[in-house]
Specification:
The chain has about 950 residues and is mostly helical. The chain has 37 helices and 9 strands. Strand 5, helix 19 and strand 6 form a beta-alpha-beta unit.
């Protein structure tokens, strides 16, 4: 058989999809905006390509053209290039799935897939029973968060999902063209498909790309929950089913993969999150879960039409059918349908109780009593399954009933665990007021750490509440206590998995943890006294963010567990302890290498701390690292598979949580199949990191070298960022960070405090701003200086030391992954574009001083990577990403050029609202094109 053209040229289908979408977008622009608009856009694209080639005169021509654009023309131009970036993403996603499918049909499983992980484990002598046993105690949880880098509107996402579906459909038909007898209807089918694509692209063009009102927390909650309907509720059961099949599991696996969410419970720096948003989040979550279950139960009722005249049913099933109260004479001989009618009625009543305001997809013909919890609903489903199993109906289980059972096991009625988070200083302020009013301590803030711990322990062993009835507390205190009270009601209403983690930002002492415990006790979420038999459904989770915090983390946890009663309380409360590690703030504090190294050191020390604790207690408290990763490498981003495998030996142990932030959520989970594969990656990496034999201890020479690189890297980073006079002004001028703060893309303020202090700026806009200007500083700065110093001091050991760095890259996953991430960031950086942004800095001396330092460090870092990897080429080991970036340059470069011109106009006082809108669209387009800039 003649090979299909797609097999001869692997990029051909991607290029054809991009050309098709680009042509349809161009035709849409011609039709909607006119021929002159289309020609203008094409002229700008050609000039940008020429400028990248450094053609003589192209830069002057491009700048003159951009400066002469009207506001209306500019808006049309940026919309065109932004939408192309969105469409190119869809084409690339389809190509990824196409290539993965080709490999899987050949029996080839890529790294990061569960199938490949299982093969690797079996090759290492680890059998299926050992894998299943490990999963019995595992906990893997991606946690969706809302941050001001999420630039996608739900309306746009929904349309893009439809386009993705049409591309997938088109791909299936085109593959048939290579068959000996292709479908004769193929030309007609492809023409209809193209017409549908054109319709969707017109819909995109006529839809507002951006919001004109700021997102509320409720909006963010609703947007996040859309991924459950489209992806998680459908794909997670499939993942479990495939894994069980691959393992040959005789019984269902433990539900170790569960979703988490911050949106609605994360109060740190966001005054818009209140007790009301907490209640709203939980009600909406329950509504999504229950509505989905109602739909599935209704569909089961249509499918399980078996008559008692044809087949027997179990006694338990008959009781369930009789108890339903279904009066319909048409279903009297159909016990499964009668049972499901009763289940449907009970779910409707449950929805009315847990999610008031939610609508069932179909009206129930009878009334029912609400389920007390998801386990009761699950028990009814098991009765149906067992009856089918026992009476020749086992073939009916896999299609819908088994996936529904798995969904209930994973999602319950709560859908996802909602985390709560607040800064430690807020807890301190609340307790200071409570203690002062109660006349227990007039100046809590003035106490030493030892005095605080002594007082807090005494109060945790006192059954009396702190609140004085009838006293009017300050508004902040009332608000904080209301959140704790709402959490107490929520746990009682939705079950202990509804809220399991309370995260304390800026954990700097043991008292920060005890304060949170005391406030939980005040809300009834700590039962018993600490020195007796205390227990709590909530895990108090310290968040260690800065470099200094990470260094103090092991000592803080040792002293916390040394508090009388704490270890016993945790053992009685599930024997689990999450510790959250902050990537963004530690990077902003110390730079990329120091951040990663201090995280590595802290994790190693924490694992040792909990191993010692297990010996002391005679029972293990499972330590689970919670990685506060973002989309950008400077915020802990990069491929999740490699990141998990790069964790220190013995720190995963089947337990991991990690945040999914910003536009990365859409990139990973908007497409259901890509979403499942991303979830698979987390599972595969956790399996390998936990079960594969460790390759021995990391050599001391590697560790000592990493420490030296960290020290030098941090010094270089802080010398630029915190010790260079005026650097903050450079950052705010040479990036669109101020305009990002104005964009209606999140409910959270960009800075914790007003002003332009870098210390107050959140790490998220810090990384986002550098990504927009293509300097990507948080992802590489300082490493070049560190390597240069290591290789040349002393000068006579250059070759020996270079050989050592190369050995570290080959043998140490931590170092190799860090280099790979920096390689990716540098491939996405562009000094020429970054220099164009620097022209926005009004002080010429500051501009030249800072950019000279940036250019020098960039070159040092590129040289360091070239020497260590023995390659002059970026992304030599990641051709797919290299191809992606190459295809995007002609369309992303114009957005940068236009953005700089727009920023200049806006900051010069040109008060045209269309300029501001166009700036915001360029921010959207650049973020979409780079995909992990948030």
């Amino acid at each position: 058989m003649t090979p299909h053209p797609y097999e001869l040229d692997k990029e051909l289908p991607l290029l054809e999809d991009i050309r098709l979408l680009g042509r349809l977008l161009g035709e849409t622009i011609r039709e909607q905006e006119g021929e002159s608009a289309y020609e203008l856009i094409e002229h700008i694209r050609q000039l940008a390509i020429a400028d990248r080639r450094a053609d003589q005169g192209s830069d002057d021509a491009l700048q003159a053209l951009l400066q002469g654009l009207s506001s209306h023309q500019t808006l049309t131009v940026v919309r065109a290039f932004t939408y192309f970036s969105h469409l190119a993403n869809l084409a690339e996603d389809q190509h990824f799935l196409r290539r993965r499918d080709v490999h899987e049909r050949r029996g080839e499983h890529s790294r990061g897939s569960v199938a490949n992980a299982l093969n690797t484990l079996r090759a290492a002598g680890i059998d299926n029973n050992a894998i299943a046993h490990m999963l019995e105690h595992a906990y893997v949880s991606p946690v969706l968060t809302a941050h001001p880098t999420e630039v996608q509107r739900k309306s746009i996402l929904d349309t893009e999902r439809a386009i993705a579906g049409l591309l997938a459909q088109r791909n299936q038909w085109l593959q048939q063209s290579g068959l000996p007898e292709p479908d004769a209807r193929l030309p007609e089918l492809l023409a209809d498909n193209e017409a549908a694509l054109r319709m969707r692209i017109i819909q995109l063009w006529q839809t507002q790309l951006l919001r004109y009102t700021r997102l509320s927390v409720q909006d963010e909650i609703d947007n996040a929950l859309s991924y459950y309907d489209s992806t998680f509720l459908h794909e997670i059961p499939q993942l479990y089913a495939r894994l069980e099949k691959q393992l040959g599991a005789a019984t269902p696996l433990h539900s170790f993969l569960r979703m988490g969410q911050w949106i609605g419970g994360d109060r740190d720096g966001n005054p818009n999150v209140t007790a009301e948003t907490l209640r709203y989040a939980l009600q909406r979550q329950a509504g999504v879960a229950l509505r989905h279950y109602l739909h599935e139960v209704h569909a089961l009722g249509a499918e399980l039409s078996m008559s008692q005249r044809r087949v027997q049913t179990s006694t338990a099933l008959n009781h369930l059918a009789q108890a339903s109260g279904d009066p319909s004479p048409h279903r009297q001989d159909e016990p499964y349908r009668r049972a499901l009618t009763g289940i449907y009625a009970r779910l409707c009543a449950t929805m009315l109780h847990l999610a008031p305001g939610s609508m069932a997809p179909h009206t129930s013909p009878i009334s029912g009593q609400a389920y007390p919890d998801a386990q009761a609903f699950l028990a009814d489903l098991h009765i149906i399954a067992q009856s089918l199993q026992e009476h020749r109906g086992a073939a009916l289980l896999p299609a819908r009933l088994q996936p529904l059972i798995r969904k209930v096991q994973v999602f319950g009625f709560h859908l996802t665990t909602l985390d709560m988070r607040q800064s430690s200083d807020k807890h301190e302020a609340v307790l200071a007021e409570l203690l002062k009013v109660a006349r227990l301590e007039p100046d809590y803030a003035g106490l030493s750490e030892d005095e605080r711990c002594e007082l807090l322990q005494r109060l945790l062993n006192d059954a009396r509440p702190l609140r004085v009835r009838g006293h009017r507390y300050s508004e902040p205190t009332v608000g904080e206590l209301a959140v704790f009270d709402a959490a107490g009601v929520a746990v009682a209403t939705y079950g202990p998995q509804a809220i399991r983690h309370y995260i304390i930002s800026h954990t700097e002492s043991v008292s920060d943890l005890l304060e949170a415990l005391l406030l939980l006790k005040e809300a009834g979420l700590l039962q018993g006294l600490l020195h007796e038999e205390a227990s709590t459904p909530i895990i108090v989770v310290p968040l260690f963010e800065t470099i200094e915090d990470l260094r103090q983390a092991p000592d803080i946890m040792r002293r916390y567990y040394a508090v009388p009663g704490v270890a016993r309380m945790m053992l009685q409360s599930g024997a689990e302890q999450d510790i959250m590690l902050g990537y963004s703030d530690s990077n902003k504090d110390g730079g990329i290498f120091t951040s990663n190294w201090e995280l590595y050191v802290a994790e190693t020390a924490l694992a040792r701390c909990f191993a010692d604790l297990a010996q002391q207690q005679g029972q293990e408290i499972r330590l689970r690292m919670f990685h506060g990763r973002g989309g950008a490498v400077g915020r802990g981003g990069g491929p999740s598979y490699e990141a998990i495998l790069a964790q220190p030996p013995g720190t995963v142990k089947g337990q991991i949580r990690l945040t999914e932030q910003g536009e990365v959520i859409a990139s990973k989970y908007a497409n259901p199949e890509i979403g499942r594969r991303n979830l698979e990656t987390l599972v595969a990496a956790t399996l390998e990191a936990t079960l594969l034999p460790q390759q021995g201890q990391v050599p001391d020479t590697f560790l000592h070298t990493a420490q030296r690189l960290s020290d030098t890297s941090r010094a270089a980073y802080r010398r630029l960022v915190y010790e260079t006079p005026g650097f903050a002004s450079y950052f705010f001028d040479a990036t669109p960070v101020r305009e990002i703060a104005e964009l209606n893309i999140g409910s959270r303020p960009a800075s914790r405090k007003p002003g332009q202090r870098l210390e107050d700026l959140r790490a998220i806009p810090w990384s986002f701003g550098w990504g927009q200007s293509r300097l990507t500083l948080p992802g590489w700065y300082g490493f070049g200086s560190a390597v240069h110093d290591f290789l040349h001091n002393p000068p006579n050991e250059h070759q020996t030391r270079l050989a050592q760095l190369q050995a570290m890259a080959q043998e140490w996953p931590f170092f190799r992954t860090l280099l790979s991430n920096m390689d990716m960031v540098l491939a996405k950086s562009d000094l020429d574009l970054a220099q164009r942004y620097s022209t926005l800095v009004s002080d010429p001396t500051l501009r030249h001083t800072v950019f000279a330092a940036l250019r020098q460090e960039w070159q040092l870092t590129v040289d360091a990577l070239n020497q260590i990897t023995d390659s002059q080429q970026r992304l030599a080991g990641n051709p797919s990403l290299a191809r992606s970036i190459r295809h995007r340059f002609p369309y992303i470069d114009p957005l940068h050029h236009v953005q700089v011109e727009l920023l200049r106009r806006w900051r010069d006082g040109e008060a045209d609202e269309r300029i501001q809108t166009a700036i915001h669209i360029t921010i959207n387009g650049i973020a979409a094109a780079l995909r992990n800039t948030g």
